[in-house]
Amino acid sequence: MKRLLTILLCVMAFGSLMAQIRGNNIVVTVEPDHQDWTYKTGEKASFTIEVRKSGTLLDNVSIDYAAGPEMYQDVKKSLVLKDGTLKLTGTMKTPGFYRVDVTAHVDGKDYKQACGAAFSPEKLQPSTVMPQDFESFWQNAVAEARKVDLNPTRRLLPERCTKDVNVYEVSFQNYQWNYRTYGILCVPVKEGRYPALLRVPGAGVRPYGGDVWTASQGAITLEIGIHGVPVTLEQKIYDDMFNGALANYWETGMDNRDKSYYKRVVIGCVRALDYIAEYTPWNQKEMGVTGSSQGGFLSLATAALDKRITYYGAVHAALCDHTASLNGVACGWPHYFYNNKGNGMDRQIETSRYYDGVNFARLITEQQKGWFSFGYNDDVVPPTTAWATYNTVKGPKEISPYQQTWHFWYQEQWDEWEDWLLKQMGIQTP
Asked: How far is CA 207 from CA 66, 160, 227, 338, 402, in A?
């Protein structure tokens, strides 16, 4: 027994001493000469490209680079950097983003970095046109959906509960009989009335864990899925759906506003608020919605369609300004008309206007507070569309770009987001 204990202690000690893989020894940087990455139209931006190995400049390194307006870069070159560094300049005569992408080739591997410089972004305006019946179309759709009883279900998930929070898988009917929305509801154990937060998802098909942490701070949270299936299944089931029946679901029905996949998704978000209002101890005051990417779009749509929303957080919001690419300007994910230039797609173009985050943003009111955040290097949700959408909102709003991020979060960005949400709910962090 003593020998076995010694062996176990040695194994544990060895495991704690094992080196972790973290980052790369080869690092590419693309640095602008303005700290905030922002310029006025007509100004010249200078970019310094460096390729380093072990923190020092790498000699004779091969690179490819592209430069120009994002998604429409018109300069593409390949060269060898003798001393591992290169300087470039670029400018824009109209508001937008000038992007430099660099790929270094070292020992058979590629290392990438980019920099998107903003030119008068506060002046960016979207291209999308709001249909005359946009607001009535959605008001009627929500009214029709509310004729269907929620008929909710609730199942306690003991393994996810904590001493402070009860966690449930819930479902409720969406816009027609027996079509259901599923989610994870988290409610503080302590009796009382609480502010509420709806979390809406990014693109994809996946299970959800629920926002237990925010609930533990003193809030009701509901995290929903959008595909009408339970959100506690094995990952492989979701993978099979994403690669099968739900492949490219964002394109489904895009030639008919009533058949678009996103119609029931948007209505499901509003019905989630109905569920919170009727079946949870909501305090009838603070009600919020937040999400990133596709969830950023759904946050805008939910706030626009339901004035119970008092605050919303739209992080690198997708599905904004679809038609920008028809004018040769960066467009929002899923980039419906980027490759095809909209040729022969008149019906899809018209339908896209009913599912454009910009048009929902136009309906947000002075009583609803917004927080926007995104990256200048994002090549999924271009910052051109993010800024144009932000500029559209007339109500109170805050913007917090994290320039170097692509389509991901930095920890500081995540923390700022969470703190802002708690502030809107009147909850003080410990």
From this structure: 38, 14, 11, 31, 28
